Structure formats: structure tokens, C-alpha cells
């Protein structure tokens, strides 16, 4: 079975639980292959938690969820050294970060101090508790959610430094009329989640993570990626553009897009397909632009302005 068939089977299995989100599953898989963290933005009740749980189950990975609230402490995320009265010694209790898929639900409800506790976890794939460093499982990705309609009600905006650590941001829309009708029919008697089957093993994913790095890009595509990123830094509507970390993320996401389509080389279309998810959330618009436009609209205008390479070589 080739990688395209693997991804198709993954999407088919999850579609038994999550209706109409096959393209989102593909993006999640690209993020997983690159150890990339994902930020979901959507109104409540659109299936974000169920999607994360279903994704973890189909890859035979462990799953844990943290409900972020204003009183959540950093130690509630990472873990703590506690004194065991019976044994008269300190014991290490690692927090819910010790998992393959960590759902940080409503991350913008937590204080900046607690949000910051995720920074080392997300960047270094390890957790340090009282000077002791513990590596996290492989693979490990954070899937965070935030509710855009409550941005001013007891929430704390994610700082740019943390936004930049998210490999991609995905907006989940309401289901269509027909999709919601199918949801009603699917969940009429009980939840199909318990019937989900494992499609891929963690060992297979580890092998794929090495294979995706072998996907090549021509110098033309390299330059195309750089022109996109550099225009975000020199654009009249943007106060702060994409970072070098974003450049690497865009390249790796394009590698993932090519890989799941059974190609060993990146095309400009691969770059265009993933650009909005990789770059938009990393941009800081000027005050004037933010009143009239969204980050996505500004990035789409950049994609229209940058000339796309006509011929792309398969090998460098």
C-alpha cells in the first residue's frame, strides 16, 4: 500500500466519525509527519475534540486533553515533584504532556504564564521539572483550540512567539446542510467513535517521517518560497512578516503535501496549497489593514502577486 492509499484509508476511517473534514485530516497528517503543532480556530461544537481523539486512535497513538482555564497552573501542564508522606520522599509526577497527541482545549483562556509552559514542550519535545529533563514520546504534537467569538471575554491572546511555534492554523467552518444531515443520521443511535480502527502504527509513521525528508525541491521552488516569505516582510499591510522558522515550515509542509501524493519532488502548487495554513497566523497586520482585511486575505493577495515558476525540475 502506497502513502496515498494510506492517507485515503485514514480519511475514510475518520469520516465515519467526523463528517466532511477529509481535507483537515490530510493537513493534520502533514503536520504529524513534520512534528508540527496545529492551532484550530472555530466556534464551539464543530467537532475539534472528537477530531483530535479520532486522529489519535487511527494512528494507534495515546491521547490526552487539557481544558485551559484562567486558574490552570504551569505544573498542571508539565508535571510536578510532590512529597509522598508514606515513603517520605519526593516523587515525580509528569503531567498530561506525556502523550502522542495533546489537545490543549481553549488555550487562550489560560494566563500567559501557563501558555508559556507549553513553549519548551512544543519546541524542544521535552519537559523539565525541578531540573530533571524528560523527553516526550515520538511522535508528539500539540493540537490547540481557541474560540474566536470570545476573544475579549476572559481570554488572553496568544503572543506572537507562541503563534510562531504552531506549524499551521486551521479554521473549521460549520458543516454544510448535507453534511449536518449526515451527522444527525450517523449519531442518531450512538457514537461511532468506539468502532474506529487503527490504520497506521506509530512505527510506520516514524518511517514516513524519515521518508518525507527525502522529498526534493528545485532551486526555482526554493526561490518561490523565499519570495513569498520576503514579501510578507516588505508588504504595506504587514507590520511583522514571517520568520525563518516559517520559511522552514512552509518548505516542510510542501514536502508533506508532495509526499502524500506519492511524489519525491515539490511543485509550486504544493507550496500554494499549504501557504495559507502555514503563514497567515504568523503575520501581524498594521492597524489600518487589520480593520479592513484578515490575515488570510492579505496572504492570498501575496500569492497572487508573486510569480509562479513555470518549469520545475524534479531533482536539484
TrEMBL record:
InterPro entries, sorted: AAA+_ATPase (IPR003593), ATPase_AAA-3 (IPR011703), CbbQ/NirQ/NorQ/GpvN (IPR050764), ChlI/MoxR_AAA_lid (IPR041628), P-loop_NTPase (IPR027417)
Presence of keyword Nucleotide-binding: yes
GO MF term (any one): ATP binding
Gene3D superfamilies registered for this protein in UniProt: Magnesium chelatase subunit I, C-Terminal domain, P-loop containing nucleotide triphosphate hydrolases
Pfam families cross-referenced by the UniProt entry: AAA_3, AAA_lid_2
Keyword Repressor annotated: no
SUPFAM superfamilies per the UniProt record, alphabetical: P-loop containing nucleoside triphosphate hydrolases
Record key words, sorted: ATP-binding, Nucleotide-binding
Ranges where the AAA+ ATPase domain occurs: 34-176
Similarity remark: Belongs to the MoxR family.
Stated name of the protein: MoxR family ATPase
Lineage, top ranks: Bacteria, Bacillati, Bacillota, Bacilli, Bacillales
